[in-house]
Design a protein that fits this description.
The strands form two sheets. The protein has an eight-stranded mixed beta sheet. By secondary structure, it is α+β, with helices and mostly antiparallel strands. It contains seven helices and 15 strands.
Length: about 300
């Protein structure tokens, strides 16, 4: 039976379709056999094949995903750590005697409050500071958990602050400078990997101990010490604050690497802040560097 031909007027108006049908193209979008049936069915089959070709060549919009570039952690800095205290006045007097200055102090009418102490100025990104926050129940002993205390610049020696936190002293750049924040970890390798993802570098390593710091300063180290058991919860040491260039990018990058996000980027205190937890549950908050300087 002879194959029906497409109407001449149709082929004249669609030269591309005319050429493809006449040549019986062997493209995977067009079967090599002649079209059969009516001219209408042949036209429909050719148009459907053209659509399939276009669909194969052009990706769907929904399949195109925009990904954030990996965050730049090269300028990250340790800004301050929060410690809960039982008596604000006793704690301020203790740290001032060590050479730290009271940078700010906000007292609550009901008693207690929050203060920043350090060797530099308030919001000074070049000098690590301590945030002292009154505990909710000052009568209860503060659980240190994995917090092993601080190393502060001064004459070599050791002591304990009014809250029971151990303090060591070592020669340093400026009296009262915090040289090291010391934490225990149940897995030194995992903990080191975590802080390296934040941009820190291992600058000293010994059996069961690693000291890390940001290359951009301030030169306050984070010293991690391996413990044989799991790190206990702390009601004394609360968190570490680190500045970064872009909180949104940093969160996206860390989340893609499997880091636990405690708080997605949120506007607080006039800044964009995001919270994370390391492998031992210690909290780290990231803030935008420029915003921190302005608040």
């Amino acid at each position: 039976m002879a194959q029906p031909a497409l109407p001449a007027w149709h082929l004249q108006k669609q030269p591309l379709l005319r050429a493809q049908v006449a040549a019986k193209t062997s493209s995977p979008c067009f079967p090599s056999a002649r079209f059969s049936g009516s001219a209408v069915l042949a036209t429909f089959a050719a148009q459907l094949a053209l659509r399939r070709c276009a669909k194969d060549r052009i990706p769907r919009r929904s399949e195109s995903k925009i990904q954030r570039a990996a965050a730049d952690f090269s300028q990250n800095k340790m800004l301050h750590a929060m410690l809960h205290i039982r008596d604000l006045d006793d704690s301020l007097a203790f740290y001032e005697a060590l050479g730290l200055r009271t940078l700010s102090c906000n007292r609550r009418p009901s008693g207690g409050g929050t203060a920043f102490v350090g060797a530099g100025e308030l919001r000074d990104k070049e000098n690590f500071a301590l945030e002292l926050a009154s505990a909710k129940d000052p009568e209860k002993p503060l659980q240190q958990g994995g917090f092993q205390g601080l190393v502060i610049s001064g004459d070599p020696g050791e002591t304990v602050d009014p809250n029971g936190y151990p303090m060591s002293f070592s020669e340093g750049r400026q009296k009262g400078s915090v040289l090291s924040l010391r934490l225990q970890t149940s897995n030194l390798r995992n903990a080191t990997d975590f802080y390296e993802q934040l941009g820190m570098k291992v600058i000293d390593e010994d059996a069961g101990t690693a000291s890390l710091a940001f290359a951009s300063g301030p030169q306050t180290m984070l010293t991690l010490t391996q413990t044989a058991s799991e790190v206990g919860s702390s009601t004394g040491y609360d968190h570490l604050v680190v500045s970064t260039e872009d909180v949104e990018d940093a969160t996206s990058t860390l989340e893609s690497r499997g880091v636990k996000v405690l708080m997605p980027p949120t506007k607080m205190f006039g800044m964009n802040i995001a919270g994370f937890a390391d492998c031992d549950g210690y909290k780290i908050y990231l803030v935008k560097d420029s915003a921190f300087q302005q608040n």
